[in-house]
Design a protein that fits this description.
Blueprint (H helix, E strand, L loop, with lengths): L1 H19 L17 H8 L3 H23 L4 H19 L2 H18 L6
């Protein structure tokens, strides 16, 4: 559990530090619709059959939430933050500890690359 906590903190600290340095300018970054390649994710995380179904549903739900957040004119940042943290919460319930740690690292990297800051 300590490793997971440290991994999460490190991933979020890394993305926050890169964003704090101004590498990503929100005016030039296209909005991410939340699409996730489920086949590659399944292979990367080595999901069981049951997990594949649940993760596919979570990914679809996350994509819907991100699209809604991106269309929003009010509180878009808060809606993106809620979508990301909601996704992480659902994944934590579905994945085992190792899989979840890998997923958090992957999500932090993806958010960083897309220029999305979920820090308050």
């Amino acid at each position: 559990m300590k490793k997971f906590g440290l991994t999460l903190v490190a991933a979020l600290a890394f993305s926050a530090s890169v964003l704090a340095n101004g590498v990503n300018d929100s005016t030039t970054v296209a909005k991410w619709d939340g699409s996730i390649n489920k086949a590659k994710l399944s292979k990367y995380l080595k999901l069981t059959v049951t997990q594949k179904e649940e993760v596919a549903d979570i990914c679809d739900y996350f994509q819907e939430q991100m699209k809604t957040a991106n269309r929003s004119t009010k509180n878009a940042d808060q809606k993106v933050r809620n979508a990301v943290y909601g996704n992480l919460k659902l994944m934590k319930e579905t994945l085992d500890e190792k899989q979840y740690a890998k997923y958090v690292r992957l999500m932090a990297l993806t958010l960083n690359n897309k220029g999305i800051n979920v820090e308050k």
